[in-house]
Amino acid sequence: MRVKIEKFLPVVWICVFSIGFLVILGRFLFIQVTGEVSGVDIKALADEKRTNEYAIPAKRGTIYDRNGMPLAQDHTVYRIYAVLDEAYTSDPLTPRHVQDVDKTAKRLAPILDMDKNEISDILHKGIENGRFQVEFGNNGKELTQQQKEEIEALNLPGIYFNDEVIRFYPNGMFASNTLGLTNKTDDKIVGISGVEKNYNDILTGADGYISYQRDKFNVKLLNPKEVVQEPADGDNVILTLDQKIQTLLEDSMSEVVEQYNPERISAVVMDAKTGEILAMSNRPSYNPNNLGDVENWYNDVISTPFEPGSTMKIFTLAAAIEEGVWNPNDTFQSGTYKAGANIQQIGDHNWGKGWGPITYLEGIQRSSNVAAAKLAYEKIGPAKFLDYLNAFDFDTVSGIDLDGEVAGVIQYNYAIEQITTSFGQGTTTTPIQLMKAATAIANNGKMLKPYIIKEIADANTGKVLQEGKTEVAGEPISAETAKKTLEVLETVITSEKGTGYKRYKLDGYSLAGKTGTAQIPHPETGGYMTGRENYIFSFLGMAPAEDPELIMYVSVKQPELKDNEPDSAPVSFIFNNVMENSLRYLNIDTDQEKTPSIPIIKVPEWKNKTTKDVADQFEEAGIQTVVIGDGDNVVNVSVEAGSEITAHQKVYVLTDAPKMPDLSGWSLRDVIKLQSLVGFEMNWSGEGYVVKQDLQQGSSISSNDELSIELSSTID
């Protein structure tokens, strides 16, 4: 029996192996036919394992001023990394990984501003931990083109770069609270405040991608099966801001900060006919390229309500005229006013002394609190006056197309609040609410909604996708009332009794306006702060007075004044300088005798002329000229023929043989003007003025060149 079993064992084993072989063969045939293992597509898995896919970031849209000057744009920087894996080197004669750690650390240290031992430690630890590659912390990020080129010139094996995009603001601390800030989230730039946040979806495009097959060393195969999906760039946002007017405002505010060290400044310039914001700024502010310690993140013009003080009397006056209860020749007893036995007494700003019996016209000129109180509480009546406050939209936000607007609050529950609101105390508002209400005075009774977005345009084609437009938000008063109000407000400036007399004066232009001296609530006592400097000094003005083209508001909180200085000195410095020069820049006709303090020059015709002829013409006209190159003929000039400029403005003349000038001491704005003429690519690092350039003075330049400059706030 045993013999018989042993006789059949080979047959059994053959059968077992045959069955096993058939099972395995069947499995292979199944895999070959279906391409699946345990429900997984192995071909797709293999493709996935050997395929690299990278996002191609969309370019974030640029924010421009109304004249095409970039205010916020993408800027390419570089991140350095070191490959440590020896397997990445296929040819020992051309190493592709870091071979000499100490040499690499020593050569990189001065360029990355790091200690060589710190770099050496990073490289050694990476090697010890079997890392394929390492980076160098914050010092290895956001490198400039110049740093990248310096490192590449060292020819260090294993050192590579990745491109990065950051958001850059060419003008530094320029409308910073308005433009806003961005942050990087998952390598994507996202707006977190201002225009950047409000229009983030429009500025942000759709990323593309590129995929290809590669080997284990991340090298593209000969047949990589490459797929490219191009990104869709974000749209551009064009603001109503005017770079020249904004610069006037920024420079004036900076001077006041330096001289008077105020707690706060807010200012805004608006086109009275359209509602367009031409300039807007605050102090403290910040440089979005280098934040440092930021004292104030808010755009106070739209986000910080406060008790406005006597600028509110503009609207008390307008309401009285509209109601027919304004008689400029009626008289009242100035000094103090007590509307009822149980109502708190209020007083005029000169500690309740007043000026005796005076007319209501003189009361407005002298900014009498009693005059405003009697107009609102006795002549107009509290209920009707509240209707006017609502009609002027003091109960709601202005609706400006910016993120973060906060409305003031009309405090009107008690008789004393109804009285103090008439002269801007108790009730709160924002500068932008005041500006919106003032458009009704300047624009024949039609109140305009303020706006700051002029256009949204396709970044590639320039096609306008959306336009800002003038929008009438209401008509709180008639055209006749608006005209009479302007006439009264003009006397605040022209009358010797006016609080704006001699302090607010525009050379060549009439002006209507109202001063304000607002008390500041005490943070502890519940009352108001005392002391000469503990006020918010302000002015709201419209020019030319008869038919205003511009409206401007300035407020300065707690400036440090000298004993012999008027309270209005910081405010009037900003207002007079910005308003007068803005009117001239916009070529608005003068309506008074003009005595120019700054020469205005009309740019001569320069097209189709020789360099010598243009240079001679400009010199004769008193124009500061910078000639670019030594060509015989003029190709382009930085200003149009026929335009008006001040004697302080530099004009750049591009010849047909352009050469690189010595840029030492040039501002970034000046270099950008040169770039716009020549068309070269540009990279920069630092802030302030040029201290280093890589294209040498006298070398030929063209649109094919790339310029790298280094800026510093201090010049040797």
Automatic annotation (TrEMBL):
Listed pathway(s): Cell wall biogenesis; peptidoglycan biosynthesis
Pfam families for this protein: PASTA (PF03793), PBP_dimer (PF03717), Transpeptidase (PF00905)
Domain PASTA: 656-713
Record field: transmembrane: 12-30
EC number: 3.4.16.4
Keywords noted in UniProt: Membrane, Transmembrane, Transmembrane helix
Localization annotation: Membrane
SMART domains xref list: PASTA
Stored Gene3D superfamilies: 2.20.70.70, 3.30.70.2110, DD-peptidase/beta-lactamase superfamily, Penicillin-binding protein 2a (Domain 2)
Organism: Gracilibacillus xinjiangensis
Name of the protein in its database record: serine-type D-Ala-D-Ala carboxypeptidase
Species classification: Bacteria, Bacillati, Bacillota, Bacilli, Bacillales
Reaction equations catalysed: Preferential cleavage: (Ac)2-L-Lys-D-Ala-|-D-Ala. Also transpeptidation of peptidyl-alanyl moieties that are N-acyl substituents of D-alanine
Residues annotated as signal peptide: none
Family: Belongs to the transpeptidase family.
EC main group: hydrolase
